[in-house]
Design a protein that fits this description.
The chain is α+β, with helices and mostly antiparallel strands. It is built from 8 helices and 6 strands.
Length: 289
């Protein structure tokens, strides 16, 4: 499911800012962008995300915002190097006999006069700040995903309800089909009995095969059970996306078997309706955590 979260925490007068974005994905795929000097904390960030999320492509951005009260110095001036440049420039001026001098602008651009250096920091303190901001961002993300998830659960439950209606229509048709099937079975038994070459055992086998081919009681019962289980998973507080995905495969199997056993236009129409709704469910289930 999709969502966004943003939160920050304080670190020595600065702000650690974490932004999260999530899009649909079958598995959990987490990518992290953060300052190079904090890269060692990437496994901690990913583990924190893994504990809260089960599916989705998650993009995590960690940055630091220096505030007005920050006392961290990262740009330094090397006096000794600057004096060497000045002394060298004076020698050149004397050699040329000119009145020129090394300007401040030119001096500032020379290598080594100014340099950037990140001072050593307390890694444990940084980790605490990063995780605190990350947890806050995850809370926001969870809130958005929960809202989306509730709407998605309602939609899926509605589709299951439509499948129940289609199955109920098939069940109403079954008594008439059973009567027709029974007559066909009687006719077939008479044909088999008239064949003197067939033994009683062979006749019994033929009858059993015919009975199994036309009976869809097991498929109907299993479909109802799967519907109930599907709704139970939707109402669960635990991640159920993979289970729902597996359950759609089981539903597909039972529907296909039912359709292959019953050769009736009215039933086939409802079987197609079942398949249509299941396909819509299958597409949405990919987005469920």
């Amino acid at each position: 499911m999709t969502g966004f979260g943003r939160s920050s925490s304080e670190l020595d007068g600065e702000n650690v800012v974490v932004e999260l974005s999530a899009v649909n994905h079958r598995f959990l795929d987490c990518s992290v962008r953060m300052p190079y000097v904090w890269a060692i904390l990437e496994p901690v960030v990913k583990e924190t995300v893994r504990k809260r999320l089960a599916r989705g492509r998650i993009n995590v951005s960690v940055s630091r915002k220096r505030g007005e009260t920050s006392s961290r110095q990262t740009v330094f001036f090397d006096r000794a190097v600057a004096q060497q440049y000045i002394a060298a420039s004076k020698e050149i001026v004397q050699m040329q006999g000119s009145m020129g001098s090394l300007s401040i602008d030119a001096l500032a651009q020379l290598e080594g006069v100014f340099y950037h250096e990140e001072p050593e920091e307390d890694l444990a303190k940084i980790e605490t700040a990063v995780v605190a901001a990350l947890e806050g961002a995850l809370d926001q993300l969870d809130s958005m995903r929960t809202t989306e998830g509730n709407a998605l659960a309602e939609e899926l439950a509605h589709r299951v309800g439509l499948m129940r209606e289609a199955l109920a229509t098939i069940e109403l048709r079954l008594p008439d089909l059973n009567a027709l099937y029974e007559q066909r079975l009687r006719d077939r038994i008479q044909e088999l009995a008239a064949d003197a070459a067939l033994t009683e055992e062979r006749i019994a086998i033929e009858i059993a095969i015919m009975a199994d081919k036309g009976d869809v009681t097991e498929e109907v019962v299993r479909l109802k059970t799967h519907f109930d289980h599907f709704l139970e998973l939707l109402s669960s507080d635990e991640p159920a996306g993979r289970q729902l995905n597996f359950l759609t495969q089981e539903l597909q199997r039972e529907i296909n078997t039912l359709g292959s056993k019953v050769r009736d236009s009215d039933v086939i129409k409802e079987v197609l309706r079942l398949k249509s709704e299941l396909e819509r469910i299958r597409e949405q289930v990919q987005n469920v955590e």
